[in-house]
Amino acid sequence: MIKEKNTFLAKVAAFTLVLSFAIAPLAQAETIQVDGASVELVETSVDLPAEYTSLPRGFLLEVKWGDLDQSVESGVDVTNWDGTLACTNCDFGLRGGILLESHDNLHHDGNKETVTWESLIYSHYDGVLVKVVPQLANESAELSITMNNELLGEKTYSFDELREGVTEELEGGYKVFLKARHPLYFWKRFNANPRLLEIRWGNLEGGYNADDPQIDYEGMLRGNGLEVAAAYPILFEEGDEVTSEAGADYATWQSTVKGHWDGLLVKVVPLEENSDEITSEEQDAIMLDATAEKSLTLTLGDFEKTFTSADEFGRFDLGDGYQVEIKNRVALPRVLAGDLIDRLIKHKIAVLRSLHAIDQAIEDLEEQGVDVSDYDALRDAISDYNFVGDDEQNQEIINKLTELLNRLEESGITDEELGDIIDQYQSMLDALKARVRLKKFALGIIDFKDVDDDVWYHTFVHAVRGRGIIAGYYDAGGKPLGIFKPAQNVSICEMLKVAVKTAEYDVGAATSNYDDVPDWCEPYYDKATELGLTIASADDVTRNATRAEVVRALIEAVMGTDGLDDYTMGTLPPDVSEDHQDALYISFAFEMGIVAGDDDTGNFRPDDSIIRAEVAKIVENTVGLLMTE
Questions:
Q1: pLDDT of 28-40, one tens digit each?
Q2: CA 101 → CA 118, 125, 217, 218, distances in Å?
Q3: Cα(364)–Cα(362) distance, rounded to whole angstroms?
Q4: For residues 138 and 107, is the Cβ–Cβ distance under 8 A?
Q5: Sign of the C-alpha dihedral, residues 88, 18, 28, 79?
Q6: What pTM, to 2 d.p., does this model score?
Q7: Which of 329, 324, 335, 312 is nearest to 266 (CA)?
Q8: pLDDT tens digit string along 305-332?
Q9: Rounded-to-integer distance, Cα 475 and Cα 479, Å
Q10: Which of 82-91, 215-224, 440-449, 527-536 has the lowest mean pLDDT?
Q11: Helix-then-strand count for the chain, H and E
């Protein structure tokens, strides 16, 4: 099934985003002075064609303001960068703030038509991310931004310009940046399975100091469309408490920390609509509803942050040298059945409870002056892994942790002895994980013996296997070996098969015999040649495919070889020039969110070979973003 993306792109490219930047009279707006200039009003309007509502729903609007390139003199106090984002004939889904701090506020009104913020900037910048969703097919949508910042004149931008990003200069070196993300870029949601989160707050950097401040924290984790239940407190002391009610969407707690940290395990269960009891029109309305995006809001003292499934958990500053960290402790649960999830969570809690006692012993050693800096890596290795197997293996990790606790409680442990103990247990863990991985494969928790559920590509491999696009390996008799070989390079022939199967084409017997094409590949070579896929013209179909060829093959197969005829090249990774033969496809894939650059450099390495794990991710992203399920 091929979605007509060429038509979609023509419509998107056709509409124009009109941004009118006007200076309001001083009496109508609060003003500030930036290097002697009055800063008042920014106003923006958006006209969408009637056909827009037939396209993928909405787009993500990013607005940032302030010292975007750190060019303003340090220490300059700029106050009251307050703003309002209002919408007529469209709804907002608030995605969150950018660099907002405890003294800033972000508000989303009940009717989804207004987002307001209060922003105080000290030589940095703040921002907001908002999902914009049209309401009606026969009326244009008008979007307006009002801020106490001044932009001169009236400007009109095409969608292509905004997709690259528009920067407007303000007085004093300050700027406003606007960027319209691609319509499908952000449609990711919390999955339908429960998960176990670990929240820790306090001195997470280690290095106990008796002079650290004592702080009383009041915390809350609240779910939107999510049931929240406290599972187990970590390092809570006398006077600390947690409150959690069955079936509620929140858990609250109070704790006191001084030079250490406290924590809490929380089980989160999505509340799903029963799709069997609603019509397709009602389901469509649910998908259009900005509030249907499930989210979690963590509040701890003055700190507050909302997470959706598109946001990254992590570590955040609380001030006074303390941090808060939130982690997903049951990794990648979307691929498991409910009974296995419940079993995994139950065992994970048992492991983390054992770690709780070890944490306390480590804290005691730290107060005695022992160097415990290597413990965090061991703790992460244990807490990040799912040890669930058979009952014997379940108990084995608990027994090993009990032994570790006993050794840590021995008197007179030195830095060197603790280092040796940690090294021994790290080696033990590696051997135990190898045994548990085989048991998880036998239980169906993982799909392949060589793809554990703690690796980044696990869900992608599971998804493409379930779709029948990429399978594991078989022996000469046709028996599955239970291995995927995630690090093996992908050949041109293999990529022809993947592209054709991703686009869901039927493939019959080969109509021709080819000297240079393996027998198994001939039907896919025929179909790829019929479709006009560029990759099929390679001189040697047995060589390794490049990363650029993989991206182009998938886009051509799913959208057609003319699918990007109406697409104007946008952002490219730093190592891809506009002259590269596949630059247009790489740009499109980057802006759609199908691929991303390397973490450190942002490079794509277009002419490098590509491994099966990477192909699995690109295929699943392509299906999710370019095809109709």
A1: 333 333 333 333 3
A2: 10, 11, 17, 18
A3: 5
A4: no
A5: positive
A6: 0.60
A7: 329
A8: 888 765 568 899 998 889 999 987 765 4
A9: 5
A10: 82-91
A11: 13, 26
Read off the tokens for 275: 């799709």
Say which amino acid occupies 589.
A
Q: CA-to-CA distance for 86 and 44, rounded, in angstroms?
A: 10
The Cβ-side half-sphere exposure at 621, using a 13 Å CA radius, reads 21
CB 18 within 8 A of CB 47: yes
Dihedral sign from CA coordinates of 274, 275, 277, 280: positive
Mean pLDDT, to the nearest integer, of 528-546? 94
For 143, the token pair is 């979007």
pLDDT in tens, 154-208: 455 554 565 667 787 777 777 777 776 544 333 333 445 677 888 999 988 766 6
Among residues 169, 97, 92, the alpha carbon closest in space to that of 135 is found at: 92
CA–CA separation, 14 and 48 (whole Å):
10
Provide long-range contacts, Cβ within 8 A and 24+ apart, for 398-405: 398/350, 398/351, 398/354, 400/425, 400/428, 400/432, 401/351, 401/354, 401/355, 401/358, 402/354, 404/358, 405/354, 405/357, 405/358, 405/361
- Scanning the structure block, which residue is given the tokens 């528009």? 166
The H or E element containing residue 65 is strand 59-66
Spatial separation of the C-alpha atoms in residues 177 and 75, rounded to whole Å = 22
Q: Containing H/E element for 77?
A: strand 77-78
Report, in angstroms and rounded to the nearest whole number, the Rg of the chain calculated over CA atoms: 27
Q: Collapsing DSSP states into helix, strand and coil, what is residue 523? A: helix
> Token digits for 370?
């022992």
Q: What burial class does residue 515 get, using C-beta atoms within 10 Å of its C-beta: 0-12 exposed, 13-18 middle, 19+ buried?
A: exposed
On whether the CB atoms of residues 92 and 85 are closer than 8 A, the answer is yes
308-321 per-residue burial string, b: 16 or more CB within 10 A, e: under 16: bebeebeeeebeee
Which strands sit side by side in the sheet containing 125-134, from one edge to the other?
Answer: 90-98, 125-134, 59-66, 175-180, 166-169
> Which residue's structure tokens are 């013209």?
537
Cα(361)–Cα(405) distance, integer angstroms: 7
Are 176 and 63 contacting, i.e. CB atoms less than 8 angstroms apart?
Answer: yes
Q: Are 143 and 132 in contact (CB under 8 A)?
A: yes
Length of the chain: 629
How many CB atoms within 10 Å of residue 506? Answer: 6
Report phi then psi at 600, rounded to 5: -80, -40
Q: Report how far apart, in Å, the C-alpha atoms of 94 and of each of 33, 115, 168, 290, 294 are.
A: 30, 7, 23, 8, 11
> In 109-259, at which residue ranges do the beta strands (DSSP E only) sit?
114-118, 121-122, 125-134, 142-147, 154-158, 166-169, 175-180, 195-202, 214-224, 226-234, 241-244, 250-258
> DSSP string of 417-450?
HHHHHHHHHHHHHHHHHHHHHHHHHHHTSSSBTT
Sheet with 105-108, side-by-side order of all strands: 105-108, 114-118, 83-88, 142-147
Query: What is the number of other CB atoms lying within 10 angstroms of the CB of residue 570?
Result: 16
Residue written as token pair 């998960």: 195
362-373: b or e for each residue (b if 16 or more CB lie within 10 Å)? bbebbeeebebe
